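Narrative of accomplishments. A recurring question from our advisory board has been how the design workflow behaves on a single, concrete structure rather than in aggregate. To address it, we present the structure tokens for one chain from the evaluation set, followed by the sequence designed for it. No filtering or post-editing was applied between the two.
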């Protein structure tokens, strides 16, 4: 079981700062594709970063696969995160970028090699393994970022606006690829976007946030979004 549960989650960035996430409670089922959508600054990234362990929880609980993770460091959580800006290491090759997370976890060398190659093939970037990120297009970089996340077979995928730096055509194509990836890997996906179309086409459920609170949660056909 690798669902994610948020229980009365609050976040403030400083002692005297206002709450930017307020009493957020949500059960994300194992294998679900949950999209957080809402205007810039409504607390989507903050919520996702708390699930990743990149931000401290001010109040409330986060469970991953039934385990309370509030004090579990990011590396020990069964998650992988993909960011908007790819966050690739510029001096490493594509292969090294994809292998990095496995090396960190002291995976055996031949297993790293097999896994990186297999996943690179899936994402059709096998021919790019020797290149540096600067020698890639935006779409190729985003594929490498996805590849780096999937080689570890995490139970939970966290994606923060992964497509917003891509041009419109590529964005539509990558949408389909991420949906396909989710289907094939059978992971739990938590996906943050401010793009309503992206939310409606990708999510099995959508969580609409505003000013730090959850406004609505439901399947795409159940929620109402202002045009
Ligand atoms: P996004 O557009 O994805 O919400 P931003 O550009 O707002 O991202 O934020 C980029 C980085 O800056 C993040 O790490 C975020 O936590 C941080 N950040 C955002 N707002 C503030 C702020 N008011 N003070 C300090 N850091 C911030
Ligand atoms: P969203 O992802 O929906 O754009 P964020 O979670 O990035 O929203 O931001 C929610 C609020 O928290 C915003 O007001 C933002 O300025 C603030 N914020 C985000 N990161 C930081 C940070 N590192 N320090 C201080 N304030 C932050």
């Amino acid at each position: 079981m690798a669902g994610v549960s948020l229980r009365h989650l609050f976040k403030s960035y400083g002692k005297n700062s206002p709450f930017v996430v307020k009493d957020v409670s949500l059960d994300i089922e194992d294998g679900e594709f949950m999209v957080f959508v809402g205007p810039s600054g409504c607390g989507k990234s903050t919520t996702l970063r708390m699930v990743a362990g990149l931000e401290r929880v001010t109040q409330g609980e986060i469970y991953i696969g039934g385990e309370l993770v509030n004090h579990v460091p990011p590396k020990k959580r069964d998650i992988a995160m993909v960011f908007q800006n790819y966050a690739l290491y510029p001096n490493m090759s594509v292969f090294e970028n994809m292998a990095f997370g496995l090396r960190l976890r002291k995976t055996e060398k031949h297993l790293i090699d097999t896994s990186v190659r297999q996943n690179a093939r899936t994402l059709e970037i096998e021919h790019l393994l020797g290149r540096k990120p600067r020698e890639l297009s935006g779409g190729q970089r985003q594929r490498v970022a996805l590849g780096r996340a999937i080689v570890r077979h995490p139970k939970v995928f966290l994606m923060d606006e992964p497509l917003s730096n891509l041009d419109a055509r590529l964005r539509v194509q990558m949408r389909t690829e991420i949906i396909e990836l989710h289907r094939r890997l059978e992971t739990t996906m938590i996906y943050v976007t401010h793009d309503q179309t992206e939310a409606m086409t990708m999510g099995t459920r959508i969580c609409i946030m505003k000013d730090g609170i959850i406004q609505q949660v439901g399947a795409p056909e159940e929620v109402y979004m202002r045009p």
